Amino acid sequence: QNPKTSTTVKQLVAEGNAGELQKYFGSRMEFGTAGLRAAMGAGISHMNDLTIIQTTQGFCRYLEKNFSDLKKRGVVIGFDARAHLSSGGSSKRFARLAANTFISQGVPVYLFSDVTPTPFVPYTVTHLKLCAGIMVTASHNPKQDNGYKVYWENGAQIISPHDKGISQAIEENQEPWPQAWDDKLIDSSLLLHDPYATVNKEYFKDIQKQCFHRNINKETNLKFVHTSVHGVGHKFVQLAFKAFDLSPPFAVPEQKDPDPEFPTVKYPNPEEGKGVLTLSFALAEKDGAKIILANDPDADRLAVAEKQESGEWKVFSGNELGALLGWWIFTCWKNCNRDTCAIKDVYMLSSTVSSKILRAIALKEGFHFEETLTGFKWMGNRAKQLMDQGKAVLFAFEEAIGYMCCPAVLDKDGVSAAAITAEMASFLATRNLSLSQQLKAVYHEYGFHITKASYFICHDPKIIQQLFDNLRNFDGKNTYPKSCGRFKVSGIRDLTTGYDSSQPDRKAILPTSKSSQMITFTFANGGVATMRTSGTEPKIKYYSELCAPPGNSDVEQLKKELDELVNALEKHFFQPEKNNLQRKTE
To answer: Which one of 47, 53, 334, 447 has the largest count of C-beta atoms within 10 Å of its C-beta?
Structure first.
């Protein structure tokens, strides 16, 4: 019943434009563990009023089946500031339609009255003991996209088999229920609650448990610049600084207010490096700030840059910031816990494609480190399991600039990470140390971990399949490569098929998934490289790392070796020219 999308469809029918109609109606968006992520527009392959109603109807029925007390506990729904004029879709509208679906079935809904960071939804699920949470956001995707992210009652993103169960329930509930389109009904309903004020108060109270140097924060002369890249982060990072008794950061004026057009950046993704930070650098130079903190548009990720003595800006990779935050959070824990026995219950986690620096710190310091599959859904669920067993999960991170620094949120959280990073920088400044100097100190202490990651863009699923099939049948049927250029392959783990050459039974320990491609190569020189497909974008990504034991400080030699390994990987395994792959462009 959305006039804009139905007009689009009627027009295409009148024109007899079968090609475009095929694009819109050829296949339904797939509901996976990441929920939905697609462009806004008409048809079942896009995010629009109808597909949101259908998805929520399926999700509602699935929750009714799983929770006898759903009508007592309810769900939370949050949204970002995305909007798409030509199809009339927006995150707020989708959130209201989803709320209407639940309320029509007698389910209480905690719908935020304004935009919020993604981490507020898992926080609310846990804090209010709700059955589930929905966040309408496409995070840092291009402006025409939107998404529908789902959390379970444990406060973590869903994992299998919930995705399959919800997907099936969507298939079974496609016809909109009688009042599905009339979202005005929710405004007078007693089942509608607004958690905005409560959560804003409680969240900032909870993250203060990670504040250990309030006096230093009050006194520091260090200046920070913050950008929310036209997303929702501005207000919340200001409040996080206030909760830590830090002076507010300078906000990049052109980017501080939510704007669905993202007018000043090509991609609203701070992971893309310096291009997104141009305005931040200019403001920092003007105001004499040494450190830049950048959130992505839904404020669940954080990028950090620091001005070096040379005058250059260094943008830390996700792995480098993970090393710094891991060191910092453990140091703060150690200072508060003099009982040496407590360390046996301390854990840190990272995803399998992230740097193994936490493993090196854990080995030397005596706490536990675990790796999980890629994505915070795995780390969040594992953290909850460990916490339920009485363990302390201090920190989890992934190289894609995602950090979980606070046990109150079982997902990545760029708001708490911003305040904790600012406190760490302020503390180091009292020792006359920069973040870059401290990073070097961490590597000297625990061994250098040099990483390099990038991606190729490929819109053709057939080519992607062919590329990975080729790696599995490299020297004849069912044989993986024995070398990559001059680099000898010493081990293979294929998490698509479940093969691991290093295990006695040749079976991988981490869970496998046939629906996504992921192969890890270990090389005789100690290097590790993983190739995988992205769950939310048309990308084939790679991640590589060379680790050296403590004491080996020939960093330049390590970097050179890793560069050569990555070049060989691109040339022999990706074969970009042959496969028509588009390189990541700055």
So the answer is: 47
